[in-house]
């Protein structure tokens, strides 16, 4: 009996072992997503396997039960058995690995290998076809049944994606010793060229070479396009020659060219020989762009060194590609736009700024890659829902008392207040919103002080704590999200034909009804000119960037027909009016709002029914800003 059969029996044993009483055949079939006929066949095989543990399976009137003297003996029997996929997701990954590694098969043979029905295999294959679409790959018929069809480069991209994600672990046919030898040689070659890759980059290079060598052995090679960056050709050529020598095969020119581009994409520093002046230029452009995004969204991207370093390295490769006219595919662009609309919108804004400074246009595929970096930063810097208010302390009773007061404030209000330092009365008059949101002072402050301030005692009594607590409750914006929606700002059948007309109409409604001032009204179009606010899913979320918002609100329009926004059609527009000050304190607002708009079912129902409360009801009453 082969390992796959034993693995299938292990699954059935786990199911039986977890059941305290005899199990019905139909229940087992449902749990394992197979037919009752398959379960009966499996039980016969399992009975044969259990003989080695002096155990057996007994079937009686549609149920079956285990006769197991020693569960430890059976567990030991199955201890090392793995490999048969249990769920549909696991089966789809197994099928992907099978076809990506040049496998061909009939539906019947796949059913036999996976111990499932042919109808289940067909369902799994349909899921696989959908997952292959972003890579422009499909399953085609051949004399042996089914095989993978599509461009060779896309097959490799798909293979790399599935392998890196950990979904599959293909065997490319190279032993550990030769792989380690090539890894060491790659490090030597990089060091000789003055290039520096981290361990992740080294492993990616090794994976790229393994996939290339495996495809070459099966007669599937890439042709050269004469677009390789010349300064990387020598390094790439040395690597392919080394790999060819270790694995006894020849890498064609197209493979060396492809590796050169891969080296550029994996670069951390030095591989493209970017001089210090160009590096500083990229870093400066990034900081300026991200600072603009932070000012608009209340984020902290420009303060994230991981993002700055990662994007600088990434852009150094992107610029080379774009200057050579190479636009690469982004197989996960659809998923990025649907799952990370907030990061995608910021990336579109950043791309607009970078285009002006760097002199090249970023296609949507590259903007998607920027969004991945930005999304990671949002996760790193956005764990807390609300940012702390900044507090300045004025204490005139001496250093010792000041230190004690600072310690008391941090101990009691550390989660709500970020103490920025101690200041004199004269210095307090010059503090602005950039310095602090609140001043805590042990003395009465003069009229020249423009910031809000509270007078407390040097020893921080219970009464002082109560005063601060009461102030924080009053100043923290805790209105329910539902309060942003108003009947007068809902337009279920807006018949306009262009983005500019829609922006003008909705912003005018916000202005006329008194929610915003004239400057804020004009800033919606200005914000849109910096980068599209469409977020996918037929939704656009324009928002203001200047002026006064007298009260936060959202104007909602459902268009009679979709309108081409910039990259795609839009039929639902949510125009958000919130102040810059609000965003600075509530930097998670857009992220939480966009998550609700990412639901295809919600947007589809809104378009079909035009019901005024659908979007409002998508937020719980307890969901506050």
From TrEMBL:
Q: Nucleotide-binding: present as a keyword of the record?
A: no
- Residues forming the PTS EIIB type-2 domain are 389-480
Tell me the keywords, alphabetical order.
Answer: Activator, Repeat, Transcription, Transcription regulation, Transferase
Domain PTS EIIA type-2 residue range list: 483-622
Q: Which GO terms describe its biological process?
A: phosphoenolpyruvate-dependent sugar phosphotransferase system
- Which part of the chain is the HTH deoR-type domain? 88-148
What GO terms are given for molecular function? DNA-binding transcription factor activity; protein-N(PI)-phosphohistidine-sugar phosphotransferase activity
Q: Which InterPro entries match?
A: BglG_antiterminators, DeoR_HTH, Mga_HTH, PRD, PRD_sf, PTrfase/Anion_transptr, PTS_EIIA_type-2_dom, PTS_EIIB-like_sf
Gene3D superfamilies listed in its UniProt record = 3.40.50.2300, Mannitol-specific EII, Chain A, PRD domain
Q: Does the keyword Zinc-finger apply?
A: no
The cross-references to PROSITE patterns, in alphabetical order and at most eight, read: HTH_DEOR_2 (PS51000), PRD_2 (PS51372), PTS_EIIA_TYPE_2 (PS51094), PTS_EIIB_TYPE_2 (PS51099)
Instruction: Tell me where on the tree of life, at the top rank, the source sits.
Output: Bacteria
- Residue stretches making up the PRD domain: 277-384
| PANTHER family registered for this protein in UniProt | CRYPTIC BETA-GLUCOSIDE BGL OPERON ANTITERMINATOR (PTHR30185), LICABCH OPERON REGULATOR-RELATED (PTHR30185:SF13)
Protein name, entry field: PTS system EIIA component
Instruction: Report the source organism.
Output: Faecalibaculum rodentium
